[in-house]
Write a structure and sequence with these properties.
Elements: H1 7-10, E1 13-16, H2 32-37, H3 39-45, E2 49-52, H4 80-92, E3 96-101, H5 111-116, E4 130-131, E5 152-155, E6 160-163, H6 178-194, E7 198-201, H7 243-254, E8 261-264, H8 270-273, E9 286-287, H9 291-294, H10 300-313, E10 321-323, H11 332-336, H12 338-350, E11 354-358, H13 378-382, H14 423-427, H15 433-446, H16 448-452, E12 454-458, E13 465-472, E14 475-482, E15 488-490, E16 498-504, E17 511-514, E18 518-520, E19 525-530
Parallel strand pairs: 1-2, 1-11, 2-3, 3-7, 7-8, 8-9, 10-11
Antiparallel strand pairs: 4-6, 5-6, 12-13, 13-14, 14-19, 15-18, 16-17, 16-19
Helix pairs in contact: 6-7, 12-15
The protein binds alpha-D-glucopyranose (GLC) and magnesium ion (MG).
Length: about 525
């Protein structure tokens, strides 16, 4: 790679779900002044970029992913002054701030949609996707909403259906309409002019639909164990060739400003994902790589295969990225268990590419069971058992009754283990997940090899071990991860005779090791600085 690199290549991004990070006014909902008050924690942790899930005025049908005003702040989160203070305070600490841009759909309460549904002749009619009923009656095609049920709702007043790939209260914008594009580009400019460092762009691969809106074919692999809305293959409602031209325009807007970044939400296998860098690296800087999240089975072989395929497919000059969790996915500690979650954290923070950390994963927060009467996620309301509330519960700061999150009644229940799994306790525990995460972040920052160095797989005989080298200049770091539940001993003497342990997942090993007999405990990961000669 070239010797210059951009800030977004060497940062660690930390995703904040604003409702759940820190409440400052006791209404049980996290807010912007709350986030500002926790910036010192983030700086202490070693995070240098934060991405906020949506903070804009919203009826909260999808907790902010239904935007009613793209250039305001929802009162539950605070005011524009609060936002300006947060941005300034983050920048004062060298922390970049990314916002969540939701261009695929608005709230049904957005003024554009209110106009659009008014009459078939309204100038805003074509800002959304309206169609007549099918000749036999019913929706125009068989598309399904990601939250369940048809992707079309009938509007009796004007006798047509409108398209919504998510909740009926989230009508899809018509991105084939240049006026829609211009309006969203101006929204971007509004925030970029304020000084935000970029955007995470919601469902960017869905912006353009097939012009003829054909029926989607059935998925032959679907089984009733999966949610009913997954029974069709999403062939025509996403990932259309024309979406790339739109993304190039989004990028051009970001490029009107110096040094901004676009991260695109794209759930696709690596083979398709890499197309979103753009033929000339002129689309998103970082097409979010969710493949560690969607991996069907978590094993050394599966992870190694994924990393190698991705590394091989990246276009020249394209920068990789990795993530383990977010507000839409079960928590990593619940998916894998605590020991493997530590191993996964070491993986995330030592692979080549920009990592994104989901709030709370640094203390191993787990999914919180939500009693049926407290389910609020639109997906959970439609498909019981498939909701996203469990991974959105309040951050566990300390052992006080509100876990340091709120003095009021939290909008989602606190974890039952908040009194024993929290920042206050883990901060002073030398072996905690928090201490491990902070240590890995510091190591990454101090080590050019980890930060921007090359990646190379190290072949090992042990099938439960994934090992690789990160190198830059004279620095060689070996990462060896034992996914298995039995101990093992590796002979890696061909790499070097000796090394020094730079990190261990248990935060309990240090000193020199002989590479001819590198011992790994069950589920243990090591970072070893190789000695020369
Ligand atoms: C993205 C968001 C998710 C939201 C959906 C619709 O996938 O991450 O939370 O429900 O888009 O905006
Ligand atoms: Mg509040």
């Amino acid at each position: 790679m070239s010797t210059t690199h951009h800030w977004w290549q060497s940062v660690v991004v930390y995703q904040i779900y604003p409702r759940s990070f820190q409440d400052s006014d006791g209404d049980g909902i996290g807010d912007l002044p709350g986030i500002t008050s926790r910036l010192d924690y983030l700086a202490w942790l070693g995070v240098d970029a934060i991405w906020l899930s949506p903070i804009f005025p919203s009826p909260m049908a999808d907790f902010g992913y239904d935007v009613a005003d793209y250039t305001g702040i929802d009162p539950c989160f605070g005011t524009m002054d609060d936002f300006d203070q947060l941005l300034a305070a983050a920048h004062a600490r060298g922390i970049k701030l990314l916002l969540d841009l939701v261009p695929n759909h608005t709230s049904d309460e957005h003024p554009w949609f209110r106009q659009s549904r008014n009459s078939r002749n309204n100038p805003y009619r074509d800002w959304y996707i309206w169609r007549d009923p099918a000749p036999t009656g019913g929706p125009p095609n068989n598309w399904l909403s990601h939250f369940g049920g048809p992707a079309w709702s009938f509007d009796a007043a004007t006798g047509q259906y409108y398209l919504h790939l998510f909740d009926p209260r989230q009508p899809d914008l018509n991105w084939r309409n240049p006026a829609v594009r211009a309006a969203i580009y101006d929204v971007m400019r509004f925030w970029l002019r304020k000084g935000v460092d970029g955007f995470r762009i919601d469902v960017i691969w869905m912006l353009i639909k097939h012009p003829d809106l054909p029926d989607n074919p059935p998925d032959p692999d679907w089984t009733p164990a999966r949610p009913p809305q997954q029974r069709l293959l999403r062939v025509y409602d996403q990932h259309q060739p024309e979406v790339h031209a739109v993304i190039r325009q989004l990028r051009a807007v970001a490029d009107e400003f110096a040094d901004r970044v676009l991260i695109g939400e794209i759930y696709k296998p690596v083979e398709d994902l890499v197309s979103y860098y753009g033929a000339e690296l002129d689309e998103v800087h970082l097409p979010f790589n969710f493949n560690l999240v969607t991996l069907p089975a978590w094993s050394a072989a599966a992870v190694r295969d994924l990393v190698e395929r991705y590394e091989a497919l990246l276009p020249p000059g394209a920068w990789p990225n990795w993530v383990l969790g977010n507000h839409d996915q079960p928590r990593i500690a619940s998916r894998l268990g605590q020991p493997l979650a530590r191993l996964a954290q070491m993986l995330l923070l030592t692979l080549r590419g920009t990592p994104t950390l989901y709030y709370g994963d640094e203390i191993g927060m787990e999914d919180v069971p939500i009693p049926p009467e407290r389910v609020v996620d639109p997906q959970g309301l439609r498909a019981p058992g498939h909701g996203r509330d469990p991974e959105r519960t309040p951050m566990q700061w300390d052992r006080s009754p509100g876990a340091g999150f709120t003095h009021g009644e939290p909008w989602l229940p606190l974890a039952a283990d908040a009194a024993v799994r929290n920042v206050e306790l883990q901060r002073t525990d030398p072996h905690s997940m928090l201490t491990l995460t902070r240590h890995l972040l510091a190591l990454r920052r101090a080590s050019p090899a980890l930060n921007i160095g090359r990646y190379r797989t190290v072949a090992v005989r042990e099938t439960h071990v994934f090992a690789y080298l990160r190198s830059r200049g004279p620095e060689d770091l070996l990462v060896a991860l034992n996914f298995g539940d039995t101990p093992c001993q590796l002979d890696l003497s061909h790499l070097a005779a000796q090394g020094s342990i730079a990190a261990s997942t248990g935060m309990d090993r240090s000193g020199r090791v002989e590479l001819a007999a590198l011992a790994l405990r069950p589920h243990e990961g090591l970072v070893v600085a190789l000695h020369e000669g």
